[in-house]
Amino acid sequence: MSITLPQVVFLFLATVIVIFSILTVTTKRILRSATYLLFVLFATAGIYFELNYSFLGAVQLTVYAGGIIVLYVFSILLTSSDSQKVEKIKNSKFFAGILAAIGGAAICIFITMTHSFPVSHFVPGELNQKVIGTALMGTEKYQYLLPFELISVLLLACIIGGILIARKR
Amino acid sequence: MFDFTVVTQWVDEMLRQLLPAPLVNATEFVLVGICLLVAYAVMALGLIYAERKVCAFFQCRLGPNRVGPYGMVQTVTDMIKMLIKEIIEINHVDRFLFNLAPYIVIIASLLAFSCIPFAKGLEIIDFNVGIFFLIAVSSIGIVGILLAGWASNNKFSLIGAMRSGAQMISYELSIGLSILTMVVLTGSMQLSTIVESQADGWFIFKGHIPAFIAFVIYLIAGTAETNRGPFDLPEAESELTAGYHTEYSGMHFGFFYVAEFVNMFIVAAVATTLFWGGWMPLHIPGWESFNAIMDYIPPILWFLGKSAVMVFIIMWFKWTFPRLRIDQLLTLEWKYLLPINLCNLFLMVFIVVFKLHF
Q1: CA nearest B25 in A: which residue?
Q2: Which of A115, B130, B160, B201 has the fewest beta carbons under 10 Å from its own?
Q3: Which DSSP letter does residue A119 get?
């Protein structure tokens, strides 16, 4: 069996994702954990680029790597100090965490195994920007204006809630 | 006009004759990488020299003038000094993050650098979301700066990094919105298409009022994004020693330094591409002989010349205005630039919908 270049790239990215995901949850220092998470997100963006879906890859980089991780690091800098180590986890919490992880993995594996992936839908080459735009902003079937607006309302509510909690009376 | 694809195709054909097919791709990857790194380093050296000279002339000094004619070899010798300096290990720091931070900054800068269309056919990454990809990768640099400030285990570095983070997150909005204004006018995010569609007139003329407002906002926000004066409070030397890179030595400091200068060039290059026609020569409708003469100037010279003017304006900012306070900086962004930008975006949409542009 010969291995093609895309397979090599995929295997590399998948290994990076697995290794750094594990490191993210096992490391003792919170800022290192955020950095490992950054690498996981980079590798995920890499998979999108490998699929020729450069729009989603760029979104992944802007929103997660440039936005969320920066906010994480920022809030870590504001709230905790370097000497502060993670406290020891209680046994009950440990087992609850393990159970939740196994449950989540089981659901994911079940869905991936039972779902049939249609091969014919894959179009080689870069996806046209207009296709994404009309799909995101259209009101017909399989177009996503309503979910898009719903999510924006949700985010607005989150922002207002955050300001309300943070504001000093 | 000289099309650079001639050269790349010639190299490609030559490699295909010499090597088996799978190796050709690998060799080309390596070649492109080497060219990119060399261009990056040369660009940084040139910019550092230019910055020193411009700064000197603004302050009525001569600047570097001993090594080589007009001191032109000075930055090269400085680079060699930087390369052979010891990288000092600091006690009580998170060594992994401390050593990682400069590389994140330089990789983000290098990725953004590789998106720039230098001349006809001379661009490395040309996605159909090109300009968006450029913003995306350049936003990664903030993580490096924050990590550097944190990992240094030094209060001044941390304050510098926090300031830098707050500043870059805020001003990224302005950059994004002013670029979006121009994307509305172009109808494309692919950098090569953006340049091609300026063949009959640069966007600063085609988009008239909103394009000009977007350009001014972009230039202000771009200066802030690269942490240069008057927005250089992340490394305000009178208060914070050198901000987030105080504890770095040798080439690790060099990475921050070089990335800062090349980021300035990237801001200038994007301004050139979006507003001033990229590598397109100046054409005036009706003046046929003038246009023909302008076509003889190679595109790369057009591009570098326009970028040099932009870089000069950014340096001019630095040596003209006094440094802002952090609250003034955030007020400028959130209370002035952002509302103006949103109105400007609306104005541009209005103009594009009613076809009021040229």
Answers
A1: A5
A2: A115
A3: S
**Which chain A residues touch B150 with a CB distance below 8 Å?**
31, 73, 76-77, 82
Q: Is residue B253's pLDDT more than 80?
A: yes
Task: Tokens for B93, please give them.
Answer: 């720091």
| pLDDT at A129 exceeding the cut of 60 | yes
| CB contact at 8 A, A13 and A50 | yes
Task: For residue B152, give how far its alpha carbon lies from the nearest alpha carbon of chain A (Å).
Answer: 11
Residue appearing with tokens 């087992």? A95
Convert the pLDDT of each residue in A45-58 to its tens digit.
Answer: 888 888 878 888 88
Q: Which of A5, A31, A70 sits opposite B165 (nearest CB)?
A: A70
Tokens in use for B74? 């000075």
A17 and A83 fall within a common domain: yes
Q: CA dist A28 to A21, A162, B82, B115, Å? A: 14, 28, 35, 38
Over residues A69-83, the pLDDT tens digits come to 888 888 887 776 655
At residue A156, the pLDDT reads 94
Nearest-angstrom CA–CA distance, B301 and B92 = 49
Q: Is the CB of residue B162 less than 8 Å away from at least one CB of chain A? A: yes
Domain extents for chain B? 93-353
Domain that includes residue A76, residue range: 5-127
| pLDDT tens sequence across B300-315 | 888 888 889 989 988 8
Of A31, A69, A70, the CB nearest to B150: A31
Does the CB of A87 have a partner CB in chain B at under 8 Å? Answer: no
Query: What ipTM is given for this predicted complex?
Result: 0.80
pLDDT tens digits for range A22-47: 888 888 778 888 889 888 998 998 88
Establish if A30 touches chain B: CB-CB under 8 angstroms: no
pLDDT at B357: 74
- Which residues of chain B does A77 touch, with a Cβ-Cβ cutoff of 8 Å? 146, 149-150, 158, 161-162, 165
- Predicted TM-score (pTM) of this structure: 0.86
Q: Which residues pair with B119 in a beta bridge?
A: B122
For the domain that residue A20 is a member of, what is the CATH number? 1.20.120.1200
Number of domains observed in the structure of chain A: 2
